[in-house]
Each structure stands twice: as structure tokens, then as C-alpha cells.
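Can you please make up a protein's amino acid sequence together with its fold in C-alpha cell form to help me picture the idea?
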Amino acid sequence: MTLHARAGQPAGPEDLIDQAALERAYYELRPDPAITTQRVAFGTSGHRGSPLAGTFNEAHILTTTQAICDYRASQGIDGPLFLGRDTHAVSGPALATALEVLAANEVEVRIDAASGYTPTPVISHAILGWNRERSRRADGIVITPSHNPPADGGFKYNPPHGGPADTAITRWIEDRANALLEANWAGVRRMPIARARAADSVRGHDFIGTYVEDLDAVIDVEALRGAKLRVAIAPLGGAGVAYWGPIAERLDIALEIVDGGVDPTFAFMTLDWDGRIRMDCSSPHAMAKLVGLRDRYDLVCANDTDNDRHGIVTPAGLMNPNHYLAAAIAYLFRHRPGWNAGVAVGKTIVSSSIIDRVAADLGRPLVEVPVGFKWFVDGLHAGTLGFGGEESAGASFLRRDGRVWTTDKDGIIMDLLAIEMTARTGSDPAAIYSELTSRLGAPVYARIDAPATHAQKAVLGALEPEQIPTTMLDGSPIRALLTRAPGNDAAIGGIKVVSDTGWFAARPSGTEDVYKLYAESFRGPEQLARIQAEAQAIVARAFAAAGV
């Protein structure tokens, strides 16, 4: 990964999007369904693309929304659909398009009463709150490309369990949407936006009040009150901008809001590793300005644009997401007496092994799943997972009484948890992590992207353990060769090789001509470099054996 010369530097006029051109492209460009990249395609977090590339346009939203309406009808889902959007430039036009279709299909829609923005976890919370008390099942749509650059758009569906739709559902929606694309939208019902907004089926909803009033069910509010901490909150101009004022008032805590205005160009950001604007609150480059505030505050907490990710800055700097997950798990499972003794820790296959050691130290079962938060949904919903977290800075956890809070990632409660941890223990999350590693070992973790052709990615995604002809990793015996996740036996779409002192995992990218190589060592950066080199050699041999 080559670092851009301006990474971490303030964005300049040349880096900003042309909003008018972006909106024109959204409405005027017609995607060609014969071109694979211009078809509807759901990844781990919905359909994403850019109007300028013909990958996120009015046609995609018309057909995908109709497909969701058809899916709801096929499943007998007759409750309200909670509809939210973030602050990306094309999220507004996409919301209008979706409303035109939803209203024409007579779907009962709940939308922010103040015509504002709604974070991803708030939609999940609303779905679950409705379905807990009523027989008419609700679901939701979130219009967001998460932390992606300002020119991008995203569209994802959350079924009645409140979390990201699984592969079977998204494939159904994809297939139906692409069939509608191929038919030049024949079969799409829509009405003019003015009529849609005025339709009896479209109603305002108090998302902010409902979510904020419930926070003391998941956060130990008494631990926060009276704590003399200097805390800054950075919504990064995202969907949570209107939430933090009510949160501070409701929880009676002092918070200073920075980067709290809405600017679809995100001109206030510093550039990410590749020189692009990206609201990635786990990136030290995108977070450079906020890292610069570390001496002024005990904590600086940030979220990405739809608030499903968290970024935690302590006086020591920006925490690696894996480090915060480990610290949060160690704290939660010792300070939630209402949780069942058998409640497990959930992690993805590429998250740090320090989490394995923390879970063992706590005497808690570990559930290791493939990449994608959808794999935590069932466990969180049933209350059998106390915590589910991803190495990409997304996580959620149970209410204090052991019931489900959200089944999607919730960056807001992860920020509040950092404040709770510091207030209750007197140690910030970085200090808690340091104490953990002094007892359990200090890992060194990295992810790199390596070039790979389409054929090579196909080979990597279909690898089996017997195709890896080695028994050692950096001189240590290999104790596991995994192509399926231990926690649920689901395919990981790649391979993970584990020894007692380190591991690596290799997975093909779903959107770029690269494969992702994750690696970790408990013996320092030199061993990490050797593991990475061995991993690349192993993958290269697999490609050569397949003739690609």
C-alpha cells in the first residue's frame, strides 16, 4: 500500500466533489445491465457505487426499491419500513427516489420527522423496538455508502431481524432488481415525489427521541454522570450530527462537538492514505486533525458518516480498532452483571487473536465468524452473543439486562462505552488495552493489499486446506488451516493459517483487483514481516498450481 504524499493533510479545493455534476449524473446516466459493474450488486453492506461511474444512479434505486417491495410482499412483511439516510451528496436524491417507489407500492414508511439524517444503528434499533411488541413485522432501508468518499452512494436493506440482510435475501433482491433493469424499469411502480411525501402511508418518526431515551438501557449512565472528563465528539459531518446534543442532555454529560456541521463535500477532512477524502474514523490519516486534539481532551470519539463505525483517540493517539475491541470486551464482560454467564464473545476471522486470549481470560466462549456483521445478527438477536465486533471498527453489544440492543454496528454506543470505561475505572481504553497486553501478550497486526487478477481471486476464494502444502509458519507448527469459520462453519472466502505465535488470512477483494492479506505476530514486527512474506509466497504457489 503506497502512501499518498498528501495523506493526513487538509483537503483542498481540487479534492472536492462537484455536487451539481454528481446529481445530474445520478438522474441522467442510465446504467447498462450488460456491463457487469453497472448492475445491482450487494456486497457486505448493500449496493454501493458512484453516479459518475454509472454504478449508483436513479435506475439502481428505482429497481432495487421495487425489488425490496416485491421481497416484502413475498415474505408477508406488512409492518412499517423505517427509512434513513446519511449526509453523502446523493443520499438525498436516492431517498426521494426510494420514497416515490415505496409510496406507489403502498408501503407504510417511517421517516425522520424533521426530514433530517438517520444513523444505521438507529434504524436497527427502531426495527427491533417495533417488532418486540407487535405482530406486523417491520424492516428498513439505510441509504449510505458508510465511510466511502463523497462522490459515492450506498443502499442497504435490513430485514425484520434489524441487521444486515444475509446472502440469500440480497441475492433475491439483486436478481429481481437486475431483471427490472434489463426490462427498462417495466414493473417499477412510482409516483411524483410531492405526492409520495404527502401520501397517508408516509409518516414522520421521532428517531432521535426514541433512540436517545433508551440509551440508559445499554450504557451505565450513572457511571458517566459527574465524571470530570474532557470529551470531544466528532460526528465527521455524518448522520449523527443532531444526536449528540440530545445525548449530552439526556445523559447529563459534558461533551464538546467538533466537525458537527453538514457539508456534502466534507471539505473539513484530512486526506486518507490514498489522497482521497474518506470519512474513515479508524484511519490515522483521515483522523489526523482529531488526533492533533489528543492533548486537549481525555477522549476524542468519532464516527463515520452513518455512525456504524467508531474511532477512539486517547492521549496516546488513535486506537487501533482491534485494540479497542479487546479493551471493550474485557471491560463489558466484567461490568455487565445482568448478562448470562454463558454469553459469548463474537469476532470476525480476521480480527486480532488478542480477542481470543481476552475471551479465554474471561472464561467466555469465543464465536469466530467470516467477515461481515451479518454473521453476528442471530447471536445478538437471541442474546447468546454479548458482543460482536469487526476489525474494521464496527461493533455492537447487548443491553445491560442481556437483551438485544441492535443487530447492526453501533458506533454511538461504542463512543459512549469509551467514556463509561474511563469514568468507571479511571483508565482510558488505551490504558486498559496496555494492561491486557502486559498479561496476555502484545500482538502486531497489519493488513496489506496485493494485486490479483479476476482468475486469481477466484482461485483464492475457492482454496481448500489440502492445497496449502506446508506444515510450518515462520518456524512454528501450523495448528489450523481454515477455509471455514470455526464459529459457524460458514465459508470464509479464502484461507486462514494459524500457529501459536502468529497467523495470516488471505481473501479476495469483492470490488478491486487485489487480495487482502491480514497477518499478526505475537513476537514483534520482524516476525510479522516474515509471516507476510511467507503468506504471499504460499498464495503465489497456489496461483501457479492453478495456472493463473
User: Anything to note?
Assistant: The longest helix spans residues 525-545. Residues 101 and 189 are 6 Å apart (CA to CA). The radius of gyration is 23 Å.
